[in-house]
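Hello again, I could really use a second opinion on something today. I've dropped the whole record in just underneath, so have a look.
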Amino acid sequence: MLKKKTFRTYDEQIDFLKSRGIAIEDENEAIEALSTYSYYSLVNLNKHLYGGLKERQFVGNPSLLDLQLAHMLNMNFYQVVLKGILYIETSFKTKLAYVISRKYGETSRDNISDPNNNFLYRGYYEDVHPVSTNTLRSLAGKLRYLQSDKDKESYSRHFLLANRQLPPWIFIHDVEFGIAIQWYNILREQDKNEVCETMIWGQTGSKPQDISIERAKTFLSGALQILREYRNTIAHGQRVFASEIESSLPEEELFMLLPEGVLTRQEYDAGIGTNDPYACLLSIVMFIHDPILMMSFLSELQSQLKFARMMQTAVSSEMKSPAEILGIPPFTMERLMEMSHQRFGDVSRYYFDLDKHADLS
């Protein structure tokens, strides 16, 4: 039998918070916080920071304001992470659609067995892959749905109103990230190689001769799944817990591709860079090949950490660092910026040097 949950008024919630070891400094402000963020968001989603998810009492006597700041930091920081994931999702879809369009054309048909002017023709894909047929049928079904009147707000709808076919580069905007990954997975190996190379080394870069494309594809698959899981978790407003992320970055392939100094084997063995938020951030940064996008993304992350530190100094007695609250290692920003420096050179160093001087002025 399911346990019954008891409704509590805001005054009763405050009494309950006090009984759990949470300090209430101003009851009116506490009521505003509870009515704005909810008891669940402030208390249940922060229990892991103060004794553990299974403990009823909050260790360390945090204030409700401490919990509020932790919740705000988590929401703000991971919204920036979500934005970064969406950039990579768009980049991945663009590269995938480019290869498919160039090799298999701009038009499609309902029947995946029809080879005439059909980029979804099953003969263009790996027939031995166990999900090839189901993936292609799902894509064909998505096309039919977009061509109907059921989804008038889709990206593709305005294009279809002009009685035009949906080419892959338009169609893919309305394909879910998970389905796009499946579409990539059923490509022929030479097509998959091309998408993989452009994702890891950029459209104008090239794979070093000493790196195996097979191992690069193993890394890409793991990284895409990490990004997909974090995307879904953050987009649904859930707290990020690495223990609930099923995918992980493959160790040997990760160290094959990472610049030196970004992660050590000891750190990886301790869970850093496996399936934790740092692994998600590494995946995003490794797939960014535009310097403006890189500097924008890292600056937004840095801004949220700075804001959290300022708020803690001004209004809170919280001793936990923003990195500890977020579940990221304290060296996160330093090493991500070093990755930017190694990829973009002086333009990256100059920008972040300006940013550092702006903070001191």
About this structure: Residues 64-104 form the longest helix (41 residues). The mean pLDDT is 91. Residues 21 and 61 are 5 Å apart (CA to CA).
